[in-house]
Design a protein that fits this description.
Elements: H1 3-9, E1 17-22, H2 36-39, H3 43-50, E2 52-58, H4 68-75, H5 87-93, E3 104-113, E4 119-121, H6 129-142, E5 145-146, E6 149-157, E7 160-166, H7 198-217, E8 226-234, H8 241-245, E9 249-252, H9 256-264, E10 268-269, H10 277-287, E11 293-298, H11 300-306, H12 310-328, E12 334-338, E13 355-361, H13 374-377, E14 383-386, H14 390-397
Parallel strand pairs: 1-11, 1-12, 2-14, 9-10, 9-11
Antiparallel strand pairs: 2-13, 3-4, 3-7, 3-8, 5-6, 6-7, 12-13
Helix pairs in contact: 5-9, 10-12, 11-12
Length: 406
Amino acid sequence: MDLNVLSSLAVENETKVVLVVMDGLGGLAGPEGRTSLEAAHTPNLNALARSGICGFHDPLAPGITPGSGPAHIGLFGYDPFDYLIGRGVLDTAGTPFVFKPGDMASRLNFATLAADGTISDRRAGRIPDQEGKRVTALLAENIKEIEGVQVLLQHVKEYRAAAIFRGKKLDGRLCDSDPQKIGLKPLEVAPIQQNPTSEAEEGARLANSFIARAKEVLAGEAKANFIMMRGFDIYDPLPNFCELYKWRACAVAAYPMYKGVAKLAGMRVIEEGQATVEEEFDLVERELPSTDFLFLHIKKADSMGEDGNFQGKVEVIEHFDRLLPRLVDLKPTVLCITGDHSTPCSLASHSWHPVPICIAAETARVDSCQTFGETSFLTGGLGRIHSTDVLPLLLAHAERLMKYGA
């Protein structure tokens, strides 16, 4: 739906909407023929499914595998094909870094480069925050500018950092240097257009020079001896989410990228160093009384899926289920639980499979689903919708949309 049309229908009231995004929630059948969601013991999620309307959403379009950024942008009601934001901007926006107009940002993955020039570990052994901060500071100390362009380094989390190029007009339409698989050599950054702009060619040259310099600086590191660049983009915020829908909105997340997309949308982002789901729930309980829309992000289901850890994903889901009564007891007008995308353990990556979704509200037309899982939701009343349909449905179930037309 057109943002301007939807915004024109939005009204203010006293209702409260909570959107829980369990990252990578959807999956495929595991060893016993059940997905991680179905194998998990989830009495509280099952009870929620029985009280709501269930189904699936496609983050982008059938068959298209989404990145985390566009998947969240769709859930917030923005067309991810119209508002594509690079991971570099998303990750950086979730940190204390302050952008300036025209900044070009790229996410960095610290990685391990083998003696033969191939990538042996795309995440440098998942180095912890302290180590990530140290090697980021090492780069910042040794690489301050390239060809007169200022280079700013920002640690993000664990093995993730960001590089921001400032001081010259650049074009962020560049390919990643990450080959996405171990055993392959890193790629050269290049413009993605057939007839690239001179600004894109300049951006690619700066990025490749930075990678070469970083390799020299990190040569003595045991694990993080290399960097890969991903998600180039120029800083440009989204239309303001709070102004569009006439409500107060805030976000609670542990990982910077998800704070970043919420911040770019104009939400109030809660930052108190929260790292556990329990700490996130503490903040939700504190903040919900003073907000109308609360976005809660739960990360680890996706991490376990990407690691191919079926039992680990089951345990993450069960952990959330044990905490869910704390959220239900807050009595939000609308409680929606879904994922941004599917991350099947059998694929160990994001996938194109539609994502389970449940909307619980007194205004919901309750369907026949008895359990919270992929097979059960095939009969759900929502059917299969687009991710950009989710926000209008949340607004409608909270009675925050006027009738359209006479």
